[in-house]
Amino acid sequence: MITRLKLDNFKAWRASGDISLKPVTLLLGENSTGKSSVLQSLLLMKQTAASPDRTVQLNLGGDEVNDFVDMGSFEDLMTQNPKKRKVGIELDTVHDENYCYFAVEYGQDSKKSPVVEEMKLSANAESWFRLARTERSAFSLYLPGEIRTSLKSRSFAPERGIAFSAEAIAALGESGQQVQDLSLQLRRELDAISYLGPLRNKPRRTYPWNRTRPGIIGEDGSNAIYALLASAQAKKNEDSNDIVTNVSRWLKKMKIADRLEVKQLGAGNYSVMIHRDGVVANLRDVGIGISQVLPVLVLAYFAPAYSTVILEEPEIHLHPQAQSFLAELFLEVSKTRHVQFIVETHSEHLFRRMQTLVAKRKAMPNQCALYFVARNKSDAVLKTLEMDSLGRLSNWPNNFFGDVTGEVREQAKLAMQRMMKERKSL
Predict the structure, then answer these.
(1) Among candidates 132, 139, 138, 129, which has minimal Cα distance to 173?
(2) What is the spatial distance between Cα 192 and Cα 93, in angstroms, rounded to a whole number?
(3) Mean per-residue pLDDT for 265-272?
(4) What is the pLDDT of residues 27-36, one digit of tens each?
(5) Is the pLDDT of residue 237 over 70?
(6) pLDDT value for 399
(7) Across the strands, what pairs with 19?
(8) How high is the pLDDT of residue 400?
(9) Can you spell out the DSSP letters for 254-315?
(10) First to last CA, the chain
(11) 87-95/19-20 β-pairing
(12) How would DSSP label each residue in 35-96?
């Protein structure tokens, strides 16, 4: 699990400070405040670590097929008017009680290409192995506690932005294995990130399928139906991970369907049918909300255990009551499958249900983190929304969800004025 994130000079984040990430983390805020940039920082690290070219130190994106984010140029990545022309990202991860601290600082070389200026890896966040870029693309290698070193070589350049090179590991001697293990742990955490964006595909009436299980759901949810088809086939073979049953259960809890059915129409062609109130309809013929939440539900059970799921606006096109049940989904899956959720949302109903679950003791305050992102001129500012054991917030964001009490008060006032005026006219 990724337990901490820190950004410096990253888009709107001049200095984010430590962002503590819990099993369920909700990011709220007005449009264009910097919420998406928090998610993009993790996706940027993921696509860099997955680069087929191990010499790449920062993959800013541009490949529509393989990349998750397109950050443009290094100038686009940096915040406005930075004091230093460097971008910093820090991560803490924990898996099976193994802790990994990672910090990287990016700059530009003489050709304006993004490069690692400094990179740190540690098993305790206090004493770290460090790489520092020197002249002519060489890197100096430091053991924990060292401020001087004779280890310097161009072959020490970091690989895929997160790992020490084989030459650097060899130069570390007995400590090399520890550094390699830390890099592998970080790589596994980044590989285990799944992402679903806010723009999802519309459903089709039929789906051709070659009976293979997709590797990913896709940022637009385009493979969600194929994951359902694969799950339905696996159920016949007594596979324990039944996505179809779990998706049907949540559709029923949300009161938007009784169940979902995968139907074979012929050789290689399938349809998804929705049952509700005795009526059976093709997914194409029901409300758009069902097709838009399906990838969210599928991904919750498709993502491997101990992975991280990043979601943008999972509530889109859902009615308020259905939105609120997403909070229960995230908490249940995080407990039972050890899947971490980092969610950008505008849903008051999702947010308030999380408070209610804490008040009912169905969740503990330390299982979820709630943040409100605001702006101070051009800079993003993170406000932690502190929640007590009764689900109460001490620093509720003013008027972000509108002023319901004020609206009711104004309506009552206007109604009274109109009634008085009508009486006088009689």
Answers:
(1) 129
(2) 12
(3) 92
(4) 998 888 999 9
(5) no
(6) 62
(7) 5
(8) 61
(9) TTS-SEEEEEEEETTEEEEEEEETTEEEEGGGS-HHHHHHHHHHHHHHHSPTT-EEEEE-TT
(10) 71
(11) unpaired
(12) HHHHHHHHHHHHHHHT-S-TT-S------TTT-S----SHHHHBPSS-SSS-EEEEEEEEET
